[in-house]
Amino acid sequence: MKKFLSQAYLWLLLVMLYAPILIIAIFSFTEAKVLGNWTGFSLRLYENLFLGGMSNSLMRSIVNTLTIGVISAVISTILGGISAFGIYNLKGRTKKVISFVNDIPMLNPDIITGISLFLLFVAVGVTQGYVTVVLAHVTFCTPYVVLSVMPKLRQMNPNTYEAALDLGATPSQALRKVVLPQIRPGLISGLILSFTLSIDDFAVTLFTKGNRGLETLSTYIYADARKGGLTPELRPLMTIIFITVLLLLLVINIMGSRSKSKIQK
Amino acid sequence: MNKDEVIINIEHLSKAFDGKAVLKDISLYIKKGEFVTLLGPSGCGKTTLLRILGGFTVPDAGVVTMEGRDISGVPPYERPLNTVFQRYALFPHLDVYDNIAFGLKLAKVPREEIDARVRKVLKMVSMSDYEDRDVDSLSGGQQQRVAIARALVNQPKVLLLDEPLSALDHKMRLDMQIELKEMHRKLGITFIYVTHDQEEALTLSDTIVVMNEGRIQQIGTPTDIYNEPVNSFVADFIGESNIFNGTMIKDKLVSFMGHEFECVDEGFGTNTPVDVVIRPEDVYIMAQTEGAQFTGKVRTCTFKGVHYEMFVDTDSGYELMIQDYNAFEPGTTVGLLIRPFDIQVMKKERVCNSFEAEVVGEGKVSILGAEFECSVPEGLESGETVTAELPFNAVELLDHPEDGVLTGYVHFILYKGNHYHLTVRTDEGADIYVDTNDIWDKGDLVGINFAPAALKISRRDEN
Questions:
Q1: Which tens digits make up the pLDDT trace of B375-393?
Q2: Does the residue A6 lie in any domain?
Q3: Pairing of strands B319-324, B406-415
Q4: pLDDT at A264 > cutoff 50
Q5: Which long-range contacts (CB under 8 A, 24 or more apart) does A51-60 make?
Q6: B150 close contact with A: CB closer than 8 A
Q7: Which residue has the higher pLDDT, B364 or B211?
Q8: B254-307 pLDDT, tens per residue?
Q9: Nearest by CB to A167, which of B56, B86, B103?
Q10: Which span out of A63-77, B124-138, B237-251 was modeled with the highest average pLDDT?
Q11: Which of B116, B202, B293, B357 is the most exposed place for a label (fewest CB within 10 A)?
C-alpha cells in the first residue's frame, strides 16, 4: 500500500509537470484555432510553420534565435575556455576572488543583467540590435562555460602539460595536443549549455534587442500573445523545440556519465 | 666515451618561492653516464633542482651549463633531456603507442622509424604487447614503464627521474630498481634521480647528493656517504645510526659515552667537541665482559629477519642500538667493543646557539623580538648590535606555546644516546637548538624560554 501511494504520488507529479507540454504536443497535430478543440488529425500547422506566408516574421525570429544562439555559444566557449585556463593557473587569493566574480552573473537575476546591459549600451551610445543581443548573450553564457571547464582542468594531471613541453612540444603545441583534448568534454558541454541558455533567454534579449524590429522567438511569442491569443503555429514549434532540448540534454548526460565511468576505471 | 667528461655543471644556483629560500647557493657537476641521485627529506629542494634542470622552473641566481653551453634561458622543449614525472603524467587521451611516439612525431621523425623505435623501447621496458592499450587501463607499474619508455624513446643525453617509484608498492619498487639500474648500464646515458628513499639511493647510484633545507650536505659514492657521513644530519638520514656528542682528546683518541676510544681520525686539534657516529652493525657484542671496552645491559631484542636489533643501556648511562646475528636475552650483561675504523668522527656544526641581538637598555637585550635580562658587558651602548650565545641546555621548552617568551615548533629531532638534540623553528623562521631529556614529536608547537643567566653577550666580530 505504502509503495502504491508513493508510486501514485510520483506519477501525479510527473503528469502535472509534463501534461501542459504533452497537451500542446498533441494539439499540434490538429487544425483548430483554439487549443482544446480536436478537429481531426492534421499536419497542416507543421506545413504552415515551414511554408506558410503569414508566419514570415515567425520564421525570421526562429532564424534569429538560432543564429544568435550559435554565434554567442561559440564566442562564449572560446572566451570561457581561455578564462578557465587563466583562472586555473592563478594562485591563492586572486583565484578565489576571480572565481567569485565569475559566479556573480550566474546568480544575478536575468532582469538585472538585462536592465544593466541596456543602460550600458545606451550610455555608450551603441545602436541596439543583433550585435548587442549577441554581446549580452555572451555576457551571461561565458561564466557557465568557465564553470563547466574548470572541473576538467582540475581533473587533469598538471604535469601532463609539462610532460608535453619536455617531449619537445612548444607551449601552443602542448596546449593543442595535450590540454585541449583533456578539457574537450567540458568545452562541448559548455557550448551546448550556452546554446540552450541563449535560445531560452527572454528578459535579457527584451532589453537589448532595441526597437528596430529585431525579434527572437521568445520576444516574438511575447508580442504575439499580447496582440491577442497565440498563433496556432506556435504549437508545432513548441513541440519541436521541446524535443530538440530533450535530445541535447540526453547528449550532455550521456557524455557526462561516460567520462565519469572512465575516471572510475 | 670519456667517462670523466662533465655533462652538466651547476654553479651557485639559488631559488626562492614567495620569499622562502628553497635552494641556497647550490654548486654541483655531473659526469657523463653517471647515475646521480639527489637525496633528501621532503622540502629539501631536490625536486626544485630537478625542475630547474628540466627547464620548468627559472632559478633566481646561478648558471646551469650542459656540455659547456649555458642552458639557463633554454625552454624545456629545446633541452636535450627528458623527464620521468612523479605521477607518470601520461596523456590520458592517447594510447600507449601514441604516448611514446608523442615526442618523435613532434620531431617529424619518419613513420617507419617511429614504429621501430617505439617497438624497441617497449621491448626494453617489457611492455611489447600493450601498444594499443588505453593508459588508464594499466596498473601503476605498467604506467611507470610507459612513462620511462616515453622519455627514453627520444634518446636524451640526460634522463631526469622525479621520484619515479614512489607510487609503487614495495616489491614492485625493488624489481623496478633493478631494471632501472640495468637500463642505465645498457644505455650509458646520464640519469639524474630524485628520491627521499635512502635505500633506493644507496642501491641505484654512482653518486649521491644529500640535500637538506636547500643546501647540499654531502656528495659522494654510496659507500662514502654511508661510512663517512660529514655531519649528523647525513648520518641520521642515511641508514640507522648511533650519534653521540664526543670530544676529540687528541689525534686518534676520542672520548664519548663516558669512555675513551682509539680511532683513526686526525686533525681535529685537542679537546675539540665533535659528533661521533657508530653504525649499529659496527658494535661488537659478546657474552663475556673481559676484553670488552665497556659493558651494557640488554634492554630489548627484536628479530629483524636477517639480524637481531638490540637496545643496550651502557654502563655509563647511554642507549646504544646494536645489530647482530646473535640474540642476547634482555637483562643479560654484555661486553661491548668498537673498533677504531668503525668510529666516524664529524666536526660539530655548532656548539651553542648564536643569535644576533640588540642592546635595549641597562642589562637588557632583544633577541628575535623578545627582551631578556642578562649581564651586558661594560661599554656596550643601547641600540648596539651584539652576538648572544646560549648553550643548548639553557633553552626551556614548554607544552603551551603561550607560556613561552617565543613560540615555535619542533622541526628536527636527533637522538644522541642519552638526550635529544632538537631543532626548534620559531614563528619568525629562526632556528633554536635545544638539548633536552623530554620526548617531543616533530611538529609539536612549543613555547620557548631562555635561561637569561646563561646568555653570553659579546661584541660582534666585524668581518
A1: 777 777 777 888 888 888 8
A2: no
A3: unpaired
A4: no
A5: A52/A233, A55/A231, A55/A233, A57/A215, A57/A220, A58/A220, A58/A231, A58/A233, A58/A234, A58/A237, A60/A215
A6: yes
A7: B211
A8: 999 989 999 988 888 888 889 999 999 999 999 888 888 999 999 999 998 889
A9: B103
A10: A63-77
A11: B116
Contact B102 A166 (CB under 8 A): no
- B436 and B422 in contact (C-beta within 8 Å)? yes
- The cell numbers describing B387, all together, are 652576538
Provide the domain limits for residue A133: 54-233
The CATH number of the structural domain formed by B241-347 is 2.40.50.140
Q: pLDDT-derived band of residue B192, with 50, 70 and 90 as boundaries?
A: very high
Most confident listed range (A41-45, A251-255, B20-24, B206-210): B206-210
Q: pLDDT at residue A260 above 80?
A: no
Contact A169 B82 (CB under 8 A): no
Chain A touched by B231 (CB under 8 Å): no
pTM here is: 0.76
Q: Which of A138-142, B114-118, B326-330, B368-372 shows the lowest mean pLDDT across its residues?
A: B368-372
How far apart, in Å, are the Cα atoms of A146 and each of A73, A87, A174? 12, 9, 20
CATH superfamily of B3-232: P-loop containing nucleotide triphosphate hydrolases (3.40.50.300)
pLDDT value, residue B325: 92
Spatial distance between the Cα atoms of A99 and B284, rounded to a whole number of angstroms: 65
Contact state of A265 with B76 under an 8 Å Cβ cutoff: no
Extract the C-alpha cell encoding A199.
535560445
| Domain covering B353-462, topology | OB fold (Dihydrolipoamide Acetyltransferase, E2P) (2.40.50)
Grid cell for residue B259: 669512555
Residue B380 is given by DSSP the state P
Does residue A135 belong to any structural domain of this protein? yes
> Integer distance in angstroms from the first to the last C-alpha of chain B?
47
pLDDT of residue B4: 65
Cβ contact A159–B150 (<8 Å): no
Judge whether B139 is closer than 8 Å to chain A, CB to CB: no
Give the pLDDT score at B232.
85
**Across the interface, which of A159, A165, A181 has its CB nearest the CB of B76?**
A165
Number of neighbours of residue B317 by Cβ within 10 angstroms: 10
Domains of chain B by residue range? 3-232, 241-347, 353-462
Q: Is the minimum CB–CB distance between B91 and chain A shorter than 8 Å?
A: yes
Q: What distance in Å separates the CA atoms of residue B374 and residue B376, rounded to the nearest whole number?
A: 6
Structure confidence at residue A105 (pLDDT): 83
Of B56, B89, B137, the CB nearest to A265: B137
Taking the Cβ of residue B136 and every Cβ of chain A, the question of whether any pair is shorter than 8 Å is answered with yes
Tell me which DSSP letter residue B223 carries: H
* Chain B, nearest residue to A261 by Cα: B136
Q: Is the ipTM of this complex over 0.90?
A: no
Q: Chain A: nearest CA to B81, how far in angstroms?
A: 8
When the pLDDT of each residue in chain B is averaged and rounded to a whole number, the result is: 87
Domains B241-347 and B353-462 share a fold: yes
Predicted confidence at residue B442, as pLDDT, reads 86
Q: Using a CB-CB distance cutoff of 8 angstroms, which residues of chain B are in contact with residue A165? A: 55-56, 75-77
Tell if the CB–CB gap between B91 and A164 is shorter than 8 Å: yes
Chain A CB within 8 Å of residue B326 CB:
no
CATH value at residue A155:
1.10.3720.10
Check CB contact of A99 with chain B, cutoff 8 Å.
Answer: no
- Report the residue of chain A nearest B92, measured CA to CA: A182
Unique residue bearing C-alpha cell 566557449: A77
Q: Is residue B191 helix, strand or coil?
A: strand
- Chain B, window 31-70: residues with a beta carbon less than 8 angstroms from a chain A beta carbon: 54-56
CA distance to partner chain B, nearest, from residue A141 (Å): 28
The C-alpha cell at B282 is 659496527
